Amino acid sequence: MEEILTIANEFYQMNDITINKSKSCLIAINVNSQTKSEGLLMGDETLYPVAKNYPVRSLGVYITENGSKQFQKDRLKKLTNYMANILKGKPITDKQAIYIFNAVVMPMLEYSLNDMTLSEKECLKITTKFISMIKNKVLLPIMVPNALIYAKEAYDGGNITIEEILVDENQYRLTRKSLRNRQLMFLEQLVSHNGKILLHWQEITNNDRRGPKPGWFKTLENKLLTDIKTQVLSAEMQATLGE
Hints:
Mean pLDDT: 80
Structural class: mainly alpha
Order of helices and strands: HHEEEEHHHHHHHEEH
Helix content: 40-55%
Largest sheet: 2 strands, antiparallel
């Protein structure tokens, strides 16, 4: 290692590059205590190994001498708790919260899992607060089994957004308030359980049955149905929903 650092220092000197050695950390793995006490010469300074359980950040992950990942796991839990606390007070639907988790939080968590794997119990521990927030959004008691949230037959966040179907950004912007008031975001909220029939306007959950059928719903009918009378979805859309 000293030979490598010597070559690196020569390269830095040749190219007039200054390295802030105070920001460098040394992790000593499988070495005796005497070697640790001697440290490692880096230019004019000597680096000494950090404590065996001290986490050193490298490319988004944390490395320790003893191989412990507890600090990294605690960071993942703090991240999900932080996001759950932010979203809990926001006027968004449970579907929108799930979308944010899948599109924003999950990539951040996955990046930190490049050098470790989690057990099912650890995953549950990390996401507990976020799951509780989802239950709160959907007006479910916190004691409801998590299996109800994961079961597609009982609760499905959906994969196809209504925005994707409407396509026209201006039209979606005008209908956004109407969708938000009815807590609608995904096409799956508007179709039957078997994914073959578009529900009638009066059958849709969180719908004000006294009001007229909105223009955005008529647009969906024109785009998705083969027969408005039977409300049967096109074969292409049925296949998409069945994937």
